[in-house]
Amino acid sequence: MQRDLRLTGVGRRYGLRGPWVLRGVDLTVPPGSLTRVEGANGTGKSTLLRLLAGIDAPTEGRVTGRPRTAYVPERFPAALPFTATGYLTHLGTVHGLSRPDAARAADEWLERFGAAAYARTPMAELSKGSSQKVAVAQALLAGPELLVLDEAWTGLDTDAREELDRAVAERTSAGAAVVFVDHDPRRLAGVPDAVYRVSEGALEPHTGERSSPSPAGPSVVVEARGPAGAEPPADARAMTTSMARTPSGTLRLTVPASRSDVLLRTLLGARPPWHVVAVGPAEPLPADPEPRETKADSCR
């Protein structure tokens, strides 16, 4: 069973007499959680992520419960002596996959991020955007228990950014932890279980964590019907922001748009499966709304 990753009294400085970049950091990252880290440039966000990923060792304090981890750095070294597929296959074997499984996963992730056309292109010849797709794919192909993302969305096109949102939802739904930094405050708005801020070398909880999705974070409503008396699967309940029973007996689940695909797969893959009646964008409800007839109701 995967344990919590814990940082206890962790500090980090570079050099014997260098200034402390971080000090006194206490942080718990549970399995299945999504954690956002914020802070101004140069405050130590990337240092914290490198400590979480095991790239750097703490100067003081200790890190316990480290799971199988994958990391996307802020700057990816693209000039490597591999093609995109060759690099991903190599990394997959390093992460414990067989070579055929690693090659298969490499092709699947390149396809998902819209980079299949560059599979046989040398890494040194890739554009910055295509190189970033490979950087993200290498972190996902072996299904890590902890995914650490340092500005991983930067340089990706719109479709690839949305695909990474979906991949994050898939990992947390599967019980993995994800910790991320992103300059866009709208990134995964309303979804994180916890938000922390790095300031003057210290890590502080950000107020308002686990907030409801704001207009900057669009939501989707999935209306579904399960077996009589059945509750939705636990994984489905965990990713929703609200659930309500309609007059017709269906269940209306509101979920951040980035997690809608994962929710649908969870419902359809349940045993016995749920029947999805309707899917659409969430709309703000008026005060004290009257029950409304749904499209599905009017067809009965």
Write up what this structure looks like:
With 300 residues, this protein is an alpha/beta fold. The chain has two domains: 201 residues, P-loop containing nucleotide triphosphate hydrolases (Rossmann fold, 3-Layer(aba) Sandwich); 80 residues, Alpha-Beta Plaits (2-Layer Sandwich), CATH 3.30.70. Helix content is 27%, strand content 26%. It is built from eight helices and 13 strands. Strands 5-6-7-3-8-9 form a six-stranded mixed sheet, sandwiched between helices. β1 and β2 form a beta hairpin. α2 crosses α3 and α2 packs parallel to α4. The longest helix is centred in the middle third of the chain and has 16 residues. The radius of gyration is 21 Å and the shape is globular. It starts with a strand and ends with a helix.
Strand order of the largest sheet: 5-6-7-3-8-9
Question: Proportion of β residues?
Answer: 25-35%
Query: What is the end-to-end distance?
Result: 46 Å
Please name the fourth-level CATH homologous superfamily of the largest domain: P-loop containing nucleotide triphosphate hydrolases
Tell me the number of structural domains: 2
Name the structural class.
alpha/beta
The CATH class of the largest domain: Alpha Beta
Gyration radius from CA atoms, angstroms = 21 Å
Number of helices: 8
Task: Show unreliable segments.
Answer: 209-216, 285-300
The ordered H/E elements are: EEEHEEHHHEHEEEEHEEHEH
Mean pLDDT: 85
Helix content: 25-40%
Major sheet attributes = 6 strands, mixed
In CATH, the architecture of the largest domain is 3-Layer(aba) Sandwich
CATH topology of the largest domain: Rossmann fold
Shape descriptor reads globular
According to DSSP, the number of beta strands is: 13
